[in-house]
Write the structure tokens for this entry.
Amino acid sequence: DIQMTQSPSSLSASVGDRVTITCRASQSISSYLNWYQQKPGKAPKLLIYAASSLQSGVPSRFSGSGSGTDFTLTISSLQPEDFATYYCQQSYSTLGGFGQGTKVEIK
Amino acid sequence: QITLKESGPTLVKPTQTLTLTCTFSGFSLSTSGVGVGWIRQPPGKALEWLALIYWDDDKRYSPSLKSRLTITKDTSKNQVVLTMTNMDPVDTATYYCARATYGEGWYFDLWGRGTLVTVSS
């Protein structure tokens, strides 16, 4: 069973900041890594699939990188609507486990 | 327009079996490269993947819950059903269904709004 670990669990940032969230897999998952955004009371929304492919309609300030066990989600310039919780998910062994989430809060 | 909607009881008693239905429109689960999965989220906690059924009827389950879960599909009705046996208060959560799509790997690209299930006597 592949375990996904995100860091940090939460962060405070200001509008306009560059934000980086890390996700680590317990074994190599190649580039089979997805990122989701979830706002309170809402369903998650797909941002990035296959580690670095931007889902249609997602702003270009979001980007993903990494392969193997270490992955990164970057928001180049944080906007007010980006305050949310972000989850990574591996899709190497079926479409499976999520990380524990990273909450991005307003500083 | 593609939509998914979860339905089922909002309250179940401990030891009972939960049956949830995902009714979807705008796509077919007989199309190659498509699946429907279930994910849950206890209040204030992280997402937890539960089960996934593919267009070819292949089924996958979370290892930690496999003994309690069954996922089935009715392609003619555009429905996917999840049953979870022996419910416990720790199973209280919002349960989501989502479409799985393949494109350089699998991902959940469209989600239902979720349904809150409370387990209490």
Observations:
- The longest strand of chain B covers residues 93-102.
- Chain B touches chain A at residues 35, 37, 39, 46-49, 52, 60, 62-64, 96, 98, 100, 103-109, 111-114 (CB under 8 Å).
